[in-house]
Amino acid sequence: MKKNLTKQELLSVSSMLFGLFFGAGNLIFPISMGQMAGKHLWLATAGFLITGVGLPLLVVAALGLSRKDGLLELGCNVGRRYGVFFTMLCYLTIGPFFAIPRCATVSYTVGMEQYVNGNHETLFQGIFSLLFFLCVLYFSLKPGEILTWIGKILNPLFLLLLALLLIRCMFSPMGKITEVIPIGGYASQPFFQGFLEGYNTMDAIAGLAFGIIVVNVIRSLDVKSAGDVAKNTVKAGMFSSALMGIIYVCVAMAGATSRGILPLAENGGIGFLQIAHHYYGKTGGLILAGMVTVACLKTAIGLITSCGETFVKLFPNGPSYRTWAILFCVGSFLIANLGLNAIITYSLPVLMFLYPLAITLSLLAIFGKWFGNAKVVYQWTTAFTLVAAGLDFVTALPEALKEAVSILKMLENVRGYLPMAEYGFGWVIPALLGLSVGCISTRIRKPGNKSR
C-alpha cells in the first residue's frame, strides 16, 4: 500500500478525468462567450472559470474528502428519497435529456450542416443522428477496447488540431479584443454572465457523477487510505482543471478576436466552424468535423455506459443494462433532432435548478466535520436552497411559456425579492439561512442541552 501515485499514474488519472469532462459544451460555450463578451472578455472568463473549472474540481474533491462511494451515497446525506431523486436528475441531465443529444447536434453542426441544402436540413440531421446513436449503442453494448483506443489515439489528435487552430488564432488574430463591443448581459455584468455561462458546460454535475470513477481508479493503484485517496483525487482534479482552464481561455480569446471579421454566430458550434474555415479553409473544416464527431462519440459512449450502469444500481429489480442503454439512445436521438439551439434553451432552466443544489451539497460534504455531518444541517440547507433554485428554474424558462402560464410569471416576480437574484445568486442567502437553522437545530438536539 502506498500514499501517493507515481508521476506517470497521476498523469494518467488526470488525463482520464479530462477526457470524462471535455465534451461538446466545452468548445461551443467559450467560443460564444468570447464573441459576446468582447472587450469585457477577461471579467467574463473569470466568472466562467469558476463554474467551468472551479466547481468541477470542488465536486470531485467533495467525493474524495467525504469518502463517499458515489453521488447516490452523497445525496443520501439529505435523505434516501432525495438521494435517489437528485442522482436520477443529474444523470438524466448529463445523459439523455441534454448532454448526450448535444454531442450529436454539435457533431452535425460542425460536420454536416455546412454541406446540406437548407430544404433538406431536417432529413439529413435525422439521418446523421440515427447513424451517430447506432454507433453509440453498438460500442455501449460491446465496448471492448474502443474507449481506450479513442482515448489514446483520436482524442490526442483532436487536441493537436485544436492546438493548431488556437495557435493560429493567437498569432494571427482577426481583430483586437479591446475593439469588440460587448453584447447583452456581457455589457452590464460580464463576470456574473460568464459565471452563469459556465453552467452550460454541465461539468459540475458531471463531476458529481464521475468523481467516484477517479476515486476507484486511485484505489486500484494501491492507494488505500481514505485520506491519501482524497489527497490524490484533488491532485488529479487540479491537473485536469488546469488543462481545461488553459483551453477555455484560449478558445474564448479566439471567439472574441473572431468578431474583428466574422459576425456573431447563432451558436458556438457555428462560430467554431467559421473560425476553422477562416484559418484552414474547407480542409480544416473537414478535419475539424471528423475530430469533433469522434470526440463527441467518445463522450456519448461514456455517458450512455455510465447512465445505464447507474440506473441498474438504482433499480436492481428493474430493466437490464442493455434495456437502459437502448432506451437512453432512443431518447437521446429524439431530443437531438430538436436542434442545438433548442437543447441549449431548455437545458438552461434545469441547470439553474441543479447547480445551486450541487454546490451546496459539495460544500456541506467538504466541511461536514465542522457540524458533525449532521443530517439535519444537510436537510435544512438543501430545503432552503431547493426553494430558491426552483425560482431560478422558473425564471430561466422561455418567455412564451411564462407568459402563457400566469403562476410562472408570479413566481418570477417573487424571485426578484431575493438578494443578488439579478446576478444569478438568489439562492445564496436562502442556503446560508438554511445552514444557520440546521446548525442551531443540532445544538438544540445535543444530549444534555437544557434548551432541548
Automatic annotation (TrEMBL):
Molecular-function GO term, any one: L-isoleucine transmembrane transporter activity
A biological process from GO: isoleucine transport
Compartment annotation: Cell membrane
Record bears the keyword Kinase: no
Main location as per UniProt: membrane
Membrane protein topology class: Multi-pass membrane protein
UniProtKB keywords: Amino-acid transport, Cell membrane, Membrane, Transmembrane, Transmembrane helix, Transport
GO CC terms of this entry: plasma membrane
Signal peptide range in chain numbering: none
Ranges that cross the membrane: 12-29, 41-62, 82-101, 122-140, 146-167, 199-218, 238-262, 283-304, 324-344, 351-371, 424-444
Family in the record: Belongs to the branched chain amino acid transporter family.
NCBIfam families referenced in this protein's UniProt entry, alphabetically: livcs
Described function: Component of the transport system for branched-chain amino acids.
Protein name, entry field: Branched-chain amino acid transport system carrier protein
Taxon lineage: Bacteria, Bacillati, Bacillota, Clostridia, Lachnospirales
Gene name, Swiss-Prot/TrEMBL: brnQ
